[in-house]
Amino acid sequence: MKTAILTDSTCNLSKDYLLNNKNIFVLPLNISMDGKIFKDQIEISSSEVYEKLDAHDVKTSLSNVGDVEEIIESIKNKGYEKLLIINLSSNLSGTHNVFRLVATETKGIEIALYDSKTLGMGLGYLVMEANKMIDNGLELNEIVTNLDDIRFNKMITIFSIETLKYLKAGGRIGKVEGTIADILRIKPIICVGDDGIYYTRVKARGNNRALTKLVDVLLEKYHSKKINLTVHYGNNLEKAQKFLNRLKLELNVNEIDICEITPVLGVHTGPGIIGVAAYEID
């Protein structure tokens, strides 16, 4: 039976990967700029978001039910009989609930809904692994069980940002402390918890020490275990590339990539993000 995967644009999967895996469909999330709605990565770029972020009213906007219904209907029309929906954390966005509402009312296709409790390439890696499982003939319930093992036992999504003001403005501050952090140059190294909410893993004074602490967290989790990882960045590509080279030396990396964070996430992190999504491989 033909099985498709539906995710959202916070997954940060590359265009090349999506072109080569036609059974994966991506719902672009929305960015509101001065009241006008733009589709993430299609109608607006990260650079456009960062240019307007401080001087304009820029925020994310929930996808509507009609958009989700339309993309699921198109999947059905392509002959797919099963659909696995994998979306960003339900505790960071209402997107999961929109998917759930539509899935409940959809007939003519078997749907399994998986709340990744993460985002960025943490979500992207779960989509990629699920796709491999589909190729290997696993049933939807088996895939969901295996995704839980990867997400909660083998994966970390962690990042450092230059200022907390964008997380605060977007209401995504979660459990991250830092009312006076910006004033004291204290940088929280932020993880996505098992509950899908941001929390402070450790703190450092200044950006360079923050990246050192970020590496320490990765070493603490993985030691010499083999991992795949992606470095995320905002408008700081050169800094991200240097950090990637450092990770190659300090960790047992199987595959490593670098990826500009998608605009809909950049609204909340700001342009100064350096982040890592990683997971242990067998």
Quick structural overview:
The protein is α/β, with parallel strands linked by helices. The protein has helices spanning 15-20, 46-52, 65-77, 95-105, 121-135, 140-154, 165-169, 181-184, 207-222, 237-250, 263-269, and strands at 3-8, 24-27, 30-33, 36-39, 58-61, 82-87, 110-115, 155-160, 186-192, 198-205, 227-233, 253-260, 274-280.
User: Looking at CATH, which topology of the largest domain would you report?
Assistant: Rossmann fold
Tell me the CATH architecture of the largest domain: 3-Layer(aba) Sandwich
Specify the CATH class of the largest domain.
Alpha Beta
Assign a percent range to the helix content.
Answer: 40-55%
Backbone shape = globular
Low-pLDDT regions:
none
Helix/strand structural class? alpha/beta
Would you kindly provide a written description of the structure presented here, covering whatever features stand out?
The strands form 3 sheets. Strands 10-9-8-13-11-12 form a 6-stranded mixed beta sheet, with helices on both faces. The protein has a 4-stranded parallel beta sheet with strand order 2-1-6-7, with helices on both faces. With 282 residues, the chain is an alpha/beta fold. The protein folds into 2 domains: 3-153, 3-Layer(aba) Sandwich (Rossmann fold), CATH 3.40.50.10170; 155-280, Hypothetical Protein Tm841, Chain: A,domain 3 (2-Layer Sandwich), CATH 3.30.1180. Helix 5 (121-135) runs antiparallel to helix 6 (140-154). The model has no long low-confidence stretch (mean pLDDT 93). The protein contains 11 helices and 13 strands. The two termini are 28 Å apart.
